[in-house]
Design brief:
The chain is α/β, with parallel strands linked by helices and 360 residues long. The strands form four sheets. Strands 2-1-9-10 form a four-stranded parallel β-sheet, with helices on both faces. Strands 5-4-6-7 form a four-stranded parallel β-sheet, sandwiched between helices. Helix 3 packs across helix 4. Strand 12 and strand 13 (297-300) form a beta hairpin. The protein is built from 13 helices and 14 strands. The two termini are 32 Å apart.
Length: 360
């Protein structure tokens, strides 16, 4: 778990006062640092672990199968996965044989980063979509016709929903290449803490950088009997932010709407949060001061302050009642604030402005 105190210099960034959950296993430190530099408090709970490629017997078996029986088409879907596959094959003594196999097939690369990895291996792709969209890859293959063709697909850690089925329905034989397989984390305690924080609205956003991470978190919520509460939190109070459409699929299949950057990278994902979370902040005048609820802290006259949980609950309740104004801040704990009214209900607030809502 990483934390940025509210009174640190970075606490004045666009994400100041907000708490963001990070589910990534790979590049989590990079994503956490980007968020913290913009003022966020970060809760990190890797929702999966990666099987080392050199120890992956399934990948070894798939590699041997392709070398012995070359496919007609190979689809490379991720740059790090393709590089890791070539490196693992080298370690097993099959590097040259695999490259020779790939030189003789139609090689498709999903996007510019994958294309760069293909060329770094000394290979040349037949085609690559600029959109990085697997839908565009599928449309090209089906347009060419796949009946009777053997297609090898580098997997994203789990089968791509609908993609394989569409190819097989078109008559293709599809061979999965399980580059970097995912397994549940060995230590589930951080995941459980993140789930509890999400259900309890202790985080303002959850970030997902891979579909397996999203699927793993959903599966753990199911195991703990809290899937309905978890999905309800994502549907209303906690913003689910995914690095791209493939990552979002497990959540969307459960009816969860997600936000995604136009470019499927960590930087744009963080920039998207910098736009979305402040837009959710709620402001209300209290005791003559402007108080803006920002996640789990408040800005009082542009100064970020921590708030006790009970005080934050009260502020959120007030923010749901438009027109609430507390007229005075200099009264004591026993003195009701005169003139404190809520326009729609005309109900007085029976209590003084709390210390954290006053100018010190």
């Amino acid at each position: 778990m990483h934390a940025t105190p509210a009174n640190s210099p970075t606490a004045h960034g666009p994400l100041a006062g907000f708490t963001v959950g990070v589910t990534a296993a790979r590049r989590a430190d990079e994503l956490g640092a980007l968020l913290q530099r913009r003022g966020a408090t970060v809760l990190h709970a890797p929702a999966l672990r990666i099987v080392p490629l050199a120890d992956d017997s399934e990948l070894l078996a798939a590699t041997k199968q392709l070398i012995d029986h070359a496919p007609d088409v190979v689809i490379a879907t991720t740059a790090i996965g393709f590089r890791g596959w070539i490196e693992a094959a080298d370690g097993w003594g099959y590097g040259e044989a695999l490259l020779g196999c790939l030189r003789g097939v139609e090689l498709l690369a999903r996007g510019p980063k994958v294309k760069g990895a293909v060329r770094a291996a000394g290979l040349t792709e037949e085609w690559s979509p600029s959109s990085e969209s697997m839908t565009e890859v599928l449309d090209r293959l089906l347009g060419e016709g796949v009946d009777g063709r053997r297609i090898a697909l580098q997997l994203h850690g789990e089968p791509l929903p609908g993609f394989v089925e569409a190819l097989r329905a078109g008559g293709a034989e599809v061979v999965g290449v399980p580059v970097y397989r995912w397994l549940p984390p060995e230590d589930l305690a951080p995941v459980d803490r993140l789930l509890d924080a999400t259900v309890g609205r202790g985080v303002d956003a959850l970030t997902f950088t891979s579909a397996p991470a999203a699927a793993s978190l959903l599966a753990r919520a199911e195991e703990r009997g809290m899937a309905e509460e978890f999905l309800a939190a994502l549907g209303h109070d906690v913003l689910p932010a995914c690095v791209g459409p493939v990552t979002a699929l497990p959540l969307q299949s459960r009816g969860v709407d997600t936000v995604q950057p136009e470019r499927f990278r960590l930087g744009p994902l963080v920039q998207l949060l910098c736009q979305e979370l402040p837009a959710r902040a709620r402001a209300l005048p209290i005791a003559g001061h402007r108080v803006e609820i920002r996640g789990h802290a408040v800005l009082v006259d542009e100064e970020l302050r921590a708030v006790p949980p009970a005080g934050m609950a009260l502020l959120r309740a007030l923010a749901r009642r438009p027109g609430w104004v507390v007229a005075r801040a200099n009264c004591c704990a026993r003195c009701p604030a005169p003139g404190a009214t809520n326009t729609p209900w005309r109900r007085p607030w029976r209590g003084c402005a709390p210390p954290w809502a006053r100018r010190s």
